[in-house]
Amino acid sequence: MPAKKRFKTDYPGVYFIEGQAVASGKPERIFYVMYRRDGRLIEEKVGRQFQDNMTAAKAARIRAERIEGRSPSNNARREAEEAAKQAEAGRWTLAKLWAEYSSHKTPGAALTTDRSRFEKYLKPAFGEKEPAEVLTLDLDRLRSRLLKQGKSPQTVKHVLALFKRLVRFGVKKGLCDSPAPRRQTISMPRVDNETTEDLDADELARLVQAIKDEPNIQAANFMRLAMFTGMRRGELFKLEWRDIDFERGFIHIRHPKGGKSQKIPLNDAARAVLASHPHVADSPYVFPGQGGKQRVTIQVASNRIKARAGLPADFRPLHGLRHLFASTLASSGEVDMLTLQKLLTHKSPNMTKRYSHLRDDALKQASEVAGNLLGNVGTPGDSTGRKVVSLGKER
């Protein structure tokens, strides 16, 4: 194809060729400039008459800027843009770290929850930043903002802990540098983990009746099993029929919150619930969700049962049943803390300590009974007729 004719302008080193406007197809001038830099002759396009509103005078000003080095040449600009793209591709922002981090995780409720925390809280604040660009002040502002929005200290702690995990993952995989401690320190909000939820006898009776009146048998038995075993909501969501060992009397809990898989005893009350519970065809789950897949929520039914029972507003239907199970055992005085820790599948005994005061109260009451019985023996007011057992002669 022959070269197009060049037309000179009144400005040195500026010329144009005739072309067609992209939008209208009408004739349009396309301006070029020529100049030398570092001994090399450079010839490059600077713009179109209509599309770029280019004129010969404007082209001359651009030529002067490029000769003086105040404006980069087209090639230099393209090289800079390419370098910027490559630099951006090499930047491990928090959003890219999350994508990589999540790809290494097993799909499930925990990952779904983390994804929600990232999308809601971390991505809007720090998604386009590299970990080292996030300062202590940024994290403090995020913590303060979430608390002011009414998020619980526990929720805020989970969000900041996820940020910490993402940074640690990036450093471990060699994707980013570890932020300098003097520039980035994470202050966790104080969380009151000593709260235990309990029901008095009347409230418990109303709850049992409300569960009995619940028309959704899946929801009713879900609540019953939570009450009789103390299992976590997520553990019940994941529970499969193969996890129930009726013969040996155990329930296998796969991947519990505490870490490795464990098993807990299948007591008579839980056995009765499971023995009568209907199986859903083509689903391995005891309490399946839609389409026989793993359930992800039971909130509507559990809140309905809570409302029917008239329970306190701050009682959490499922987590509260776990606390109810634990506090009932602890206050009986018949279960030691180590056994309770194993039944609750707590990884650390520190989590179980919140119930120790209930066991202490039960032991104190038992001690008082013994003290009253033995302390009154042989006194003038003692009419029990109990035998006094000789402890032997004093030595």
Automatic annotation (TrEMBL):
It comes from the Bacteria. Coiled coil: none annotated. Transmembrane segments: none annotated. GO terms for molecular function: DNA binding. It holds the Pfam family Phage_integrase. CDD domains: INT_Rci_Hp1_C. Gene3D superfamilies: 1.10.150.130, Intergrase catalytic core. GO terms for biological process: DNA integration; DNA recombination. Residues 194-368 form the Tyr recombinase domain. Keywords: DNA integration, DNA recombination, DNA-binding. Residues 92-171 form the Core-binding (CB) domain. Residues 76-85 have a biased composition (Basic and acidic residues). Residues 66-85, 375-395 are annotated as: Disordered. Belongs to the 'phage' integrase family. This is Integrase. It comes from Solidesulfovibrio carbinolicus.
